[in-house]
Design brief:
This protein is mostly helical and about 200 residues long. The protein is built from six helices and no strands. α1 runs antiparallel to α6, α4 runs antiparallel to α6 and α5 packs antiparallel against α6. The longest helix is centred in the C-terminal third of the chain and has 60 residues.
Length: about 200
């Protein structure tokens, strides 16, 4: 095969790879924007705010070190949702009877159907675990958004590198003589024998 033909075919294949990487980067960027905006919008609609700095809630050593950085702010990001779920709601649930585990509180309530306190705790634990689960789901989607952002950056970077290689391939094809071959077979010439 002629070297020039090989260079042109490889470069044309490279153009296809560049196009695919640009499309992948565009889709990953769209995924990032969609997930990030959805998380922000859904969390903002809930109008949850962190306790104020210096409040009794943040004085707890189980809560304060994790939430002081967000004190008084509205909860609108995935990282904030994870912190609130794991270091505010989960702490309060763990301080309830049966460690705030819904299945355990519910079973105790069913065993004592006339106990109004247990019935109220079932409702509280259900609401707390549900809100915690929803906040952790928002956090998970924010992580997906971050992954999509890095995938977009990697795709665009690889597209740029591949475009450089394509350009070098076309440049090399222009400089290669028309008769140059790729993988030519070279037959070694026998060495002359020395007569004794």
């Amino acid at each position: 095969m002629r070297r020039k033909t090989f260079d042109l075919l490889a470069s044309l294949g490279g153009i296809l790879v560049v196009a695919m990487l640009i499309v992948a980067g565009g889709l990953a960027t769209w995924g990032y924007n969609f997930s990030n905006n959805s998380v922000h919008t859904q969390l903002a609609q809930q109008q949850i705010s962190f306790p104020a700095l210096g409040s009794a809630a943040l004085a707890s050593p189980k809560i304060g070190p994790y939430l002081n950085q967000y004190a008084g702010q509205p909860l609108t990001t995935g990282d904030q949702a994870e912190a609130y779920a794991d270091h505010f709601i989960a702490v309060h649930l763990s301080e309830m009877p049966y460690n705030g585990v819904y299945a355990n509180v519910s079973a105790a309530s069913m065993a004592a159907p006339t106990n109004a306190t247990l019935k109220a705790e079932v409702q509280t634990v259900f609401q707390g675990t549900t809100l915690r689960g929803l906040l952790l789901e928002a956090y998970a989607f924010s992580v997906f958004a971050t992954i999509a952002l890095w995938a977009a950056i990697a795709s665009f970077f690889m597209a740029f590198l591949m475009a450089l290689l394509v350009g070098l391939g076309f440049w090399h094809a222009r400089r290669t003589p028309d008769n140059a071959e790729i993988l030519t077979h070279h037959t070694p010439t026998p060495e002359p024998s020395i007569a004794a």
